[in-house]
Amino acid sequence: MNYNIAVISGDGIGPEIVAEAKKVLGKIEVKYGHKFNYTEVLMGGISIDVHGVPLTEEALSTAKESDSVLLGAVGGDVGNSKWYGVAPNLRPEAGLLALRKGLSLFANIRPAYLYQELKSACPLKDEVIGDGFDMVIMRELTGGIYFGERKTEEVNGIIKATDILTYDDEEIRRIAIRGFDIAMKRRKKVTSVDKANVLDSSRLWRKVVTEVARDYKEVELEHMLVDNCAMQLVKNPRQFDVILTENMFGDILSDEASMITGSIGMLSSASLGKTKQGMYEPSHGSAPDIAGKNLANPIATILSAAMMLRYSFDLDEEAGAIESAVIQVLKDGYRTVDIMSDGFSKVGTCEMGDLIADRI
Length: 360
Ligand code: NAI
Ligand code: MG
Fold this sequence. Notes:
Isopropylmalate Dehydrogenase; cytoplasm; EC 1.1.1.85; 3-isopropylmalate dehydrogenase activity
């Protein structure tokens, strides 16, 4: 099959890590007989340099017309970059927000997987880690308190700030369906996280998720309060398969979950909307401190490309081939500097990409 991919290399380490993901995808093309057609799209700092804005209309249309978007990272050294002296809507990250909004990407998927080979990087005790954990956080991305009305006012000398948390049933239903769909491809368990003992929006969340669950008889659904979930993530992360939650809870819990996997250079993500189209990017930023030095770990981006194959193109086997290749490279003892420890072979960005591609 032919697939059209909009590629946004971005800034800092972006071009280096995206090049490695394309290298690995190249091996998938050869082995499985697919064709990936890439269109480079400028976004972020580089777009500011070339066009004066972080995302042009043309770039957005190219992304919209693609089958999916593969992104490195955007942004510069925030304290020391020409891009940050200007209005917020002209900064690199504004391009990313405009793109997510422009593509209506309401579902953010962040897997938190502990590789056996990286167990020593996990801050949890061995008896808690056991054989490791493998979960996915499905976070609602375009609703809730981050998008509600907000204001600060002063009345009779009292300063009052307000942020409103709103969800409607349709917003909840569409993310819940995504969560259950992913659970069907995994261990068939959904933990829906809310604060239904306090919040009306959470009571609606719980009601709608329960309704959606009726269409997924094979999937076990449990409800968990968010404070308990925060505790359970460190107490027994092995119990989770898919965590389904609203925007702010997902923001906080996904950071907690990522920390227990050990390294930021390993974590992939996908942002999806109503169609098969998605945007795939590592969870980390543009790492200006190590840019251009062949030091960045490309694995998060390579695993994001695997997610693209699985979620946008339904190429499960091909996605699995990439994931297995990553595990094999770790088993074979190769480490980029962020995951390096005694007794392993240190490799650069480019070599890590070669090693993974070789194992496809
Ligand atoms: P960062 O994630 O870029 O870097 C944090 C630390 O992790 C740095 O020490 C960096 O060297 C290291 N690191 C990150 N990715 C790595 C990798 N693949 N391999 C090895 N080490 C890695 O976060 P920071 O420094 O807060 O932000 C830098 C820039 O990135 C800022 O302009 C920020 O706004 C932007 N950013 C962009 C994102 C995106 O494009 N989605 C997400 C987060 C930040
Ligand atoms: Mg966050």
